[in-house]
Amino acid sequence: PAEYFFTPIHEQGRYSGSVLSFRDISQRYALDRLKDEFISTVSHELRTPLTSIRGALGLLSSGILGNISDKAANLLRIAVTNSDRLVRLINDILDLERIQSGKEPITFRPLQLSDVVRQAIDGMQPVADAAGVQLLHDTTQAEISGDPDRLLQVLTNLLSNAVKFSTNGSTVSVMMRPGAAGVTLSVIDQGRGIPADKLEAVFGRFQQVDASDSRQKGGSGLGLAICRTIVQQHAGRIWAERNPVRGSTFRVFLPYRPETLAAAQVAAPLD
Ligand code: ADP
């Protein structure tokens, strides 16, 4: 891999030519790989002890301690919440690594996108009910070729974010617009919205609009990076927009026949 620079040369205020220079970035590329591998190895090693800590905490909070003070119960609650957060973070790191490395190639098969939407909505319904958020979806039918489990993961992530950043009494809607080459899926919320200069950054790893988002909302900042990787493997596009009045809309364009387009995308570095 290489990157190139184009430097215009001016002599006495007049353009006289340009210098094109190339820089070999294979070392940086190799370093990035090494860093990713390191993170995933560490995450892997952390998962087993963490699972046992989480299991033990679960048992302790299930009442085997008998009567405990409010203070002790509160400390247990904090330990459970935070180990759940760590488990989510580690699972997201390992998930992203697995998907990006191509260790688990995706399998395209014909599917009704509306089935995936319904499944994602059913899965999120309890969370939405608890948050007082109404989930709506249209009934448009669209058959595409894709990996249903991965697409379910994308939709679940988008719905989970939409609910997480919405307030009680608001609505989250999923809409599908079939076009000439593919379908555009939109997840529209009426939540707190995303600043214009962060609309692209939120798809980066560990990127959160607010530093308190991971603490208060329990996220890892990896969900949208995972979504983008999966959508790219489907030769599609994912982006975020600000709504005119309130909230944000996440759009996913999925081509009808990704098999004919995806090979080039998957071969390229996904970052
Ligand atoms: P997280 O696990 O933090 O949700 P994501 O990668 O899914 O990680 O999202 C990154 C950040 O983008 C979030 O922490 C939040 O700041 C912002 N974000 C994502 N979706 C929304 C949304 N629907 N409304 C407002 N902000 C959002």
Automatic annotation (TrEMBL):
Domain Histidine kinase positions: 41-258
Organism: Occallatibacter riparius
Domain of life the protein comes from: Bacteria
GO biological process, alphabetically ordered: regulation of DNA-templated transcription
Protein's UniProt name: histidine kinase
GO molecular function, one term: phosphorelay sensor kinase activity
Keywords assigned: Kinase, Membrane, Phosphoprotein, Transferase, Transmembrane, Transmembrane helix, Two-component regulatory system
